[in-house]
Amino acid sequence: MIFKSLIIYSYSNKEVFKEYTFNECGLNVILGERKEEGQETNGVGKTTMVESINFLLGGSCPNDFKGKEALINKDIFLILQVIKDGENVFLGRLINQPDIGYVLYSNSLTFDLGQWTVKEEYKAFINNFLIDQSEKEPAFSSLREYIIRDEKKGFIDIKLPNRTPIYEAMYFAYLFGLPFDFEFDISKIKKEQKELNKKLSLINSLKNEIGDLKLKEEKINNEIRELDEIIMNVKFTEKLQRDANEYSYSKDEYNKVQNSIFELEHIKKQYEKNINDLEEKIEEIKLLNDLEPFYEQLIGYFPEDIKQNYEQIQYFYNFMVDNRGEYFRHKIENIDDQIKEKSKELNKIGNALSKKSLAFINTDIISDFSRINEEKNEKFEELAEIRVKINLYKEKSDVTSQINKLKTEVLRLTEIKQNIYTNFQNKVSEIQKLFNDFVKKAYKESGILEFELNNKTGINNSTGRIEINCQIDDEKSHGRLYMKINMFDLTWFVNGLKNEGGKVPLLIHDGSYSKPDKHAKERLLNYVDNLLKGIGKGQYFITVNIDELEQEVFNDFDKKGLIVAKLKRGNNNKDRFLGFRYTN
Question: Fewer beta carbons below 10 Å: N end or C end of the chain?
């Protein structure tokens, strides 16, 4: 795909406000004038131009456009003319209709929207238009922020902030033409393995209670048989006697648990009092802040022994609040958990007591039958829960076997991926050489661009990820850091043009040449322009201000036709990006 031109049309004015024609190969410079004094930006539209291109490539409507009366009243239509597979295509979006887009397959442009195709799902259309999604490649929408980098968030490092590592690694591998799906293939197996590990942990937690569970299972079975016998033989007297004994036992247990809760609550209050006492002491010590001025006024100085004693007391109580206070808070949290568990136990015993008491209240035989059947159902529910745990424990060997098979599969896949990656070593060497060529041209020194396949197979390892290390000397300087990122991006960009048929035919850097050394960026930009023209494809868009390169460099760029937009104030705002001013 080749960018031909960018057109700004107003339906209200029925005229083309601006048209920018692009170089089909090589450098495309969007030039702005120097900032006004006291202004963070020069406000002529360099970034707005980049954001408009991003909008036409499926991005969100620029925030700067939203709610602007001048844009709404002029009903602005943005159009990007491209050549795709030899066919002329116009991509259009109305600022007043940011949720949809328009496409026109034609050699001539018309502003009659009736002849354009409306794309309700414009972002999805662009994804398929620019990258063949049938090949299961990353969507253009995922790659766009790496292809169009902006100074605000794109030049902190080669990686973008707050991105999911597995996806970012995949996108970089794709951009460099390296295998990009290794980690995903292996992570699917690891996800299954993690689920089984959780299950095995749960099984292992039953190890110490499995014996008790089996005994309890037998006990409940016996109790159910006894209840059946009572029902069959109408032995309610025996049942009543047993209920009375159990009621008495439960009552004792209820009292014990209740007393335990009271005791825990008392301890909790004591801990809370300790914290309050410490904090009160600190407040009291703060009242002594006037002590030093008092002595200064009284005797002209603050006695050293009193000062030292005061500081020691203050330090001690601050330490106690920070350390013992935290210890007490931790203890309170533990007590709260214990009270919560004890309260559950208390409610359970209380419910049992309520049911047992019914045996002494009811006087008719039907109620006795109902009550016993209800108790029997409760026993069956309890028995079912116990059997679930017992049956789960029986699965231990099977689950362990499944985990071992998955581990083996991870090892097998990792070895296969390692063998495949080994075949890319010549390509990696070419990429490293290309990066070093850029560094040598810019700074006359070498840099580091290393790729390593993570073949560690631990459950928490990012197995299959191609990890990247990119460094140049003195990159703590903002200028050098920006240049490192410029050169890193140019490396995957140019490498792709050479080897991948130009799947990503453009690269846009907005604001990244504001800080680097003038001579370094001049050498790099000239080298890149010549390199792209030698390859015969690839468009590199950059934004710069008039004071960020020597005037003679801009004169040379101008002669070569590399400056595609000269944006500035004055001339009744006609030389701004949109051809008019839309902000105050």
Answer: C
Residue 36 three-state SS: coil
The residue segments making up the domain with residue 325 are 226-385
Q: How many Cβ atoms sit within 10 Å of the Cβ of residue 377? A: 11
Residues linked to residue 93 through DSSP beta bridges, in sequence order: 78
Q: Is residue 88 part of a domain?
A: yes
Q: Residues 383, 386, 387, 390: what is their CA dihedral angle, to the nearest 10 degrees? A: -160
Residue 17's nearest CA partner among 583, 514, 575, 584 is 575
Which CATH number covers residue 108? 3.40.50.300
Residue 106: phi, psi to the nearest 5? -170, 155
Structure tokens that stand for 471 in this block: 């460094």
* Domain count across the chain: 2
**The tokens of 340 are what?**
């919560």
- Residue 498: which of 529, 448, 532 has the closest Cα? 532
Same domain assignment for residues 263 and 341: yes
Cβ distance 45 to 510 under 8 Å? no
CB 210 within 8 A of CB 390: yes
Q: SS in 3 state form for 344-405?
A: HHHHHHHHHHHHHHHHHHCCCHHHHHHHHHHHHHHHHHHHHHHHHHHHHHHCHHHHHHHHHH
For the stretch 387-429, pLDDT in tens is 888 887 888 889 999 999 999 999 999 999 999 999 999 999 9
Q: Are residues 231 and 371 in the same domain?
A: yes
Q: Return d(Cα 240, Cα 232) in angstroms, integer.
A: 16
Residues 156 and 295 in one domain: no
Q: In this structure, are residues 552 and 466 in contact, taking their beta carbons and an 8 Å threshold?
A: no
* Sheet with 2-10, side-by-side order of all strands: 15-21, 2-10, 76-84, 87-94, 101-105, 117-119
